[in-house]
TrEMBL record:
An example Gene Ontology molecular-function term: hydrolase activity
InterPro entries: AB_hydrolase_1, AB_hydrolase_fold, AB_hydrolase_sf
Annotated source species: Streptomyces kaniharaensis
Domain AB hydrolase-1 span(s) in chain numbering: 22-245
GO terms for cellular component: membrane
Protein name: Alpha/beta hydrolase
UniProtKB keywords: Hydrolase
């Protein structure tokens, strides 16, 4: 697995597939790039997929300093450059959507097309979002409650009932308040990419989720409105659309990325 140094950070990234085009998948808050693993077979026929583990993820190493969206965006762009396969298509989910958008704005020469799923501009634009992130942070000393809150807000009620108790409990155990995850949530709470958005030049698809209790869909619609010329798609799911509607999500992403 290649590992690059970006400032004080050591950032590993996986390379999966050997397709002619390049796709970078940017993870959201939490453990790291493993969140994309169930989708990889849907892309590797066409793409060489790069999966960076950014600062705050379990696999990355850094100085533990407060994170900024510019720091993580620089790590994404450094991975594209290190792989020598740019410009790349970049897909980000949740915090990864915000980071991917910032990466496209800061280095438009490296991003061919952009997909931002379940992202936002700033928590200061929505009191629900601001209080939700604060609540998440306040549960750091109670791992069980932390995992349950993360699960409750990540998925729609219908999806939780469909997958059943064993799967639900497994998910609550997956999302734990590690120091890196808490750094991600602090970033979720404090970031503001409004000044970067005019710099996005890549054709962009923004994806929202109507039942999203983590990032209410109005925030994602606002992101779409702020990116000039962007397209928009919406799924009737909770926050983690790639789990609830995996096939439809990957088809929508592929259709956009391969459009003439």
């Amino acid at each position: 697995m290649p590992t690059i140094t970006v400032g004080p950070a050591r950032i590993p990234y996986r390379v999966v597939g050997d397709g002619p085009d390049t796709l970078v998948l940017v993870h959201g808050t939490g453990p790291g790039s493993g969140m994309w693993d169930a989708l990889l077979d849907s892309f590797t026929d066409r793409y060489t997929v790069l999966l960076p583990d950014l600062s705050g993820s379990e696999a990355a190493e850094d100085d533990g300093a407060e994170l900024t969206v510019e720091t993580l965006a620089a790590q994404v762009n450094a991975v594209i450059e290190d792989a020598g396969r740019g410009p790349a298509d970049v897909v980000g989910f949740s915090l990864g959507a915000v980071v991917a958008t910032a990466a496209a704005a800061l280095r438009p020469d490296l991003v061919r097309r952009l997909v931002a799923a379940a992202g936002w501009i700033s928590a200061d634009q929505d009191e629900y979002l601001r209080v939700s992130f604060h609540t998440w942070l306040s549960l750091a000393d109670n791992p069980a409650a932390f995992g349950r809150y993360a699960t409750l807000t990540a998925f729609s009620r219908g999806f939780l009932n469909r997958i059943g108790r064993t799967a639900v409990e497994a998910n609550t155990a997956y999302m734990q308040p590690t120091s890196g995850t808490l750094r991600h949530i602090a970033l979720d709470l404090g970031l503001d990419i409004s000044a970067l958005l005019p710099g996005v030049q890549a054709p962009t698809l923004v994806i929202g989720c109507t039942q999203d209790a983590t990032v209410p869909v109005e925030n994602t619609r606002r992101l779409h409105a702020a990116i000039a010329g962007s397209e928009y798609a919406e799924f009737d799911t909770g926050h983690i659309v790639l789990a609830e509607e995996t096939e439809a999500f990957t088809r929508t992403v592929r259709d956009f990325l391969t459009a003439a």
